[in-house]
Amino acid sequence: MEIKDFNFETSTDDKDLVTLKVVVSKDAYNKELEKQIEYYKPKVNIKGFRIGHAPNNIILSRYKDGLESATNEVMIENVWNTYSDEKNAKCIATPKLSYLENKDDGLHLTYEYYPLPDITLPELSSISLEKNKYDVDDEAVEKAYKLSLQRFSPFEESELKSELGDKVYVKIEFDDEENKKYNKELTLIATDNENETIFAKNAVDVKKGDKKLLTTYVNDREATLIMEVLKVEKPNIKDDSKEEEVKKVKEGLKEHLAKRAEARADSELINDAIFNKMLELVKVDIPKGYYEMELDRSLEDFERQVSGNGMTKTDFFISVGKKEEDIKKEYEENVKKQISFDLIMAKFADVYKDSLNINEDKAREYANRLYQYQSYLGLSKRPKEEQQDIINHIMKEAENRAVSEAILDYIKEHINITEKDAGRFVANENDLWAGY
């Protein structure tokens, strides 16, 4: 197909969405229709004719709907590819077909898409970054070994103050009548992880009978609650293993931790250093409508995740001590950064496509993980059409992830990386069991 085979017009709305209206000439359409008839002709069995010898007009009269549907599918792809190549019209994701009708003057098609913004990439050889280097010494191994024992140890009530990893039973009570319906008892794991709930972060260095006054938000209004410690439980760690067995386990653990330390350093290099450096060096003008669409998708995923954990949004906002607007602002910033980074990676993938080594096995593995996650969120309960949209999104995400990993490997090979001492490696439970 050539661009002379169709007429087109474009328009752009205030959200940067481009609408492409196309009318494919009747001659061009009929040529493709004839191709479809010839393709299916050898398989057609019509009474009165030998197989494959029925006249084209007879075949068309019998199978018009199917043949026109096949022709339309070819035209949808060919028209876009021709227009994209001739006009250098590159878009974010796959263009959406919003209208299709076969009229007397030809096939009418309407596409909607967000244009790929112009991006100027930095010279990789000019970028210098530091990569953390963690020390896996005997103390790191000893702490990790105790952590592994703790996982299988029974917890027993203690009068001592809680430490990281201890179980803490609490009761939360609001000081006003209106919010008393949110009073409840919780079992917490004491932590210093800033991403955990305000309750878990305040469950360190407390003992039975202690009370803490915490500030949170209920329906976007500030509220005060009292968190009373009902009980503290500590792991009763016992190790009946023989000395030789312990020695052997620790030797294997040290090797495993060394791999995990390298994996963490590599992850920090990619997710922190490279991510932030690219956002610092490259300006990306994100189409407004695309940003809003991705933000809505992320917020919907957030709501499904909260619901999947058996919580209401109000429960969640209370637990993290934030207003809904605070969470939305965090998502707005993170979505904007992630879109920008993804588009930068897409530009790298296009420029260096002949130098990339894409791992298809990793793409399938990632798609499977995404599918399992969506199944957990209730994929099978959603409408069939919506299920297919989600599956299509999963496959696209998996493909993008594999390409992203390939380009990140390429970037790491071509930038200047120096190691810096990051101190002793402190393992968490994920480090202990990853790979086993």
From TrEMBL:
Residues 246-373 form the Trigger factor C-terminal domain. GO terms for biological process: protein folding; protein transport. One of its GO terms (cellular component) is cytoplasm. InterPro entries: Trig_fac, Trigger_fac_C, Trigger_fac_C_sf, Trigger_fac_ribosome-bd_bac, Trigger_fac_ribosome-bd_sf, Trigger_fact/SurA_dom_sf. It catalyses: [protein]-peptidylproline (omega=180) = [protein]-peptidylproline (omega=0). SUPFAM superfamilies: Triger factor/SurA peptide-binding domain-like, Trigger factor ribosome-binding domain. GO terms for molecular function: peptidyl-prolyl cis-trans isomerase activity. Residues 11-145 form the Trigger factor ribosome-binding bacterial domain. Keywords: Chaperone, Isomerase, Rotamase. It is found in: Cytoplasm. Its EC number is 5.2.1.8. Belongs to the FKBP-type PPIase family. Tig subfamily. This is Trigger factor. It comes from Brachyspira pilosicoli.
